[in-house]
Amino acid sequence: MFQPYTWNHVFFMLGGLGTTIWLAAIALVGGSIAGSVLALVRVAHNPVLRNAARFYIFVVQGTPLLVTLFIAYFGARWLGIDVAPIVAIAVAFSFYAAAFLGEIWRGAIESVPNGQREGSHALGLSYADSMRFIIVPQAIRIATPPTVGFFVQLIKNTSLASVVGIVELTRTSQIVSNATFKPLDVYLTAATFYFVVCFPLTLLSRYLERRLGTQTK
Amino acid sequence: MDYLDFSGVLARGDLLAKGLLLTAQISLISMAIGLVIGVLSACLTLSGNRVLRLVVLGYIEAIRNTPFIVQVFLIYFGLPALGLRLDPITAAITAMSIYGGAYISEIVRAGIEGINKGQIEAARALGLSGYRTFRHVVLKPALAAVFPSLSAQFILLLLSSSVVSAISVPELTGVGNDIQGMTLRNMEIYLVIAVIYVALVALLRGLMLGIERWAFGYKFVGR
Hints:
The structure holds 2 protein chains of 2 kinds.
Chain A: H1 7-42, H2 47-62, H3 65-78, H4 85-110, H5 114-122, H6 127-157, H7 169-180, H8 183-213
Chain B: H1 7-10, H2 13-46, H3 50-64, H4 68-78, H5 88-113, H6 117-125, H7 130-160, H8 172-183, H9 186-216
């Protein structure tokens, strides 16, 4: 009646892990582009832009990712855009990542000591030049550990794409669990896969924090 | 593009209200249990007992490096294999408490580690008992210092409650899925749900700010 839980199932789940990592990587790239714009707008002089970015972050961070994914999944069809669900979901993950990365990077930009800003102003650098040559290079140092940490969150959160039918690691586990009726073994395997991918990144984030995090002078 | 019609969705306001109530209940209960687990495991990771410390650190790392939905599935679908069958709501609260506890533990530990050793020595020298020293000189200032992180974690816990709809808990997202099935108005229902969550988060944020002012509305000396 039920299949025995075999290595073939484990390899099938490994294929799902590929989609998981692929989805997280897309979200990181898309989220980085939108997030850096968002971070710069958040520290800009124009109050309208600043508040628009703030509102965007407030809404995205206040909505459960699962609901965001539902809106993206049905929204693409509602807008009449004919794309594969995984594309809509990848875009949603990018929007989601942008809100969090934008906040992390804004924090990093703001934690560059004010004297640096005043110094570059006194030297006659324009706003764009002082951002580009003085502030952002220092902010990147500060932002690296939490950014790596957020990537761990991103990898874990791609598991929610399973609910809208994307066949990534969690969805393959559900399929295998239904076929073998060994939910404990199957989900422990899935958890192990996630752990093996995420834990080294967590350690890296902690290591970078010790190396870079405190040197903000 | 189709027009948006909220009438069918809003006609199920009774269901939405029920879901909202359950979301609030399971979130608040999990926050409370998670806080207890977090404070206890923070103390254990800082304690001298090496075995206990390793066990607790293992728990924290395991939870922090695996997805919440997999933890929910393990508790709801996996535990019956070990002879422990939980109903969906109990499974949800259990999963959320264990999940929240791991993150809260890290936050509380950072707070406790930030306490100046001299403060503890001074309290002991003044004749405070170990328990009173811990409560007034260690725990309370530690919680005050990390309260903003704690608030953020509570908000994440509230949002994570939407995930338990995957084991058919009729909380806000769960009833959203049901209403979607009844009305087939998928965009409308999830937009309404999103607005309710954003409002809930704003409310919780305000509540936590109020608690912060009420509980820690004075400055601790010597930090």
